[in-house]
From TrEMBL:
Lineage, highest ranks first: Bacteria, Bacillati, Bacillota, Bacilli, Bacillales
Organism: Salinicoccus roseus
Protein's recorded name: DUF1129 domain-containing protein
Domain of life: Bacteria
Transmembrane segments: 91-114, 126-149, 169-188, 200-220
Coiled-coil boundaries: none
Record key words, sorted: Membrane, Transmembrane, Transmembrane helix
Length: 223
């Protein structure tokens, strides 16, 4: 069966699940999506087989554990072993390009806006070391944040945590990376030595657009 048809069938089968079966399936589904190439034919085929097994068990009034066993994570891991793996670092790298590009675009467009209001020059002094380090650090923090979120999800998957505890943990991770970014950004502003040159801000915006385009292209080609 074609991948698109499998995806449509999986959605229909998903809607047929009773709540007690649906919750377990959705936990397994999210875990698989995080760990595998989510749009691969193999992944959709594995989910289709799982859904049909669960629906058959549902019709017979059996327990979901008769399909998955008592350890849902171990069952999900056994499925993932046979599927194309998601390359988290590559995914994070593309997202880093996107966010670095957006950061340059919005940061310098705002500066351009206020300079136009003040009728000021649209050029700025670019300290090469500071500018380069800022992009590298921003990209590295984005990659680290995404990797940390994926890793944390794997560790807490299938645990009976209340929503506030799970999302609170994600918030703390995000807040920690934000504080680290702010601290490093303060350190970067103190760097005013090394080669520098005047550059039109629109050129920096153009650089941001190029990075954004490269990130989006890489992200969707990978998908």
């Amino acid at each position: 069966m074609a991948e698109k048809n499998l995806t449509k069938e999986n959605r229909k089968l998903h809607e047929k699940l009773d709540p007690r079966y649906k919750k377990v399936y959705e936990d397994i589904l999210i875990y698989i999506r995080v760990n595998t190439s989510s749009e691969s034919h193999e992944t959709e085929a594995a989910l289709n087989t799982l859904l049909k097994k669960i629906i058959q068990t549902q019709r017979e009034g059996g327990s979901i554990t008769s399909v998955t066993g008592e350890d849902y994570r171990a069952y999900a891991d056994s499925l993932i072993e046979k599927l194309p793996q998601r390359n988290i670092l590559r995914l994070a790298s593309f997202l880093a390009l996107i966010l670095v590009g957006l950061n340059l675009i919005f940061d310098y467009l705002i500066q351009i806006f206020f300079r136009l209001i003040d009728s000021a020059a649209l050029s700025t002094t670019l300290v090469v070391i500071q500018f380069t380090l800022e992009m590298i650090i921003t990209a590295a923090l984005v990659i680290g944040f995404i990797y940390a979120i994926f890793h944390t999800f794997r560790q807490i998957a299938f645990k009976a945590w209340p929503a506030w505890k799970e999302y609170g943990l994600y918030f703390l991770i995000g807040f920690g990376f934000f504080l680290l970014y702010m601290f490093l950004n303060i350190l970067l502003t103190s760097i005013d030595s090394g080669p520098s040159f005047e550059v039109n801000m629109f050129l920096i915006v153009l650089l941001g657009i190029i990075l954004l385009a490269l990130g989006i292209l890489g992200f969707y080609r990978k998908k």
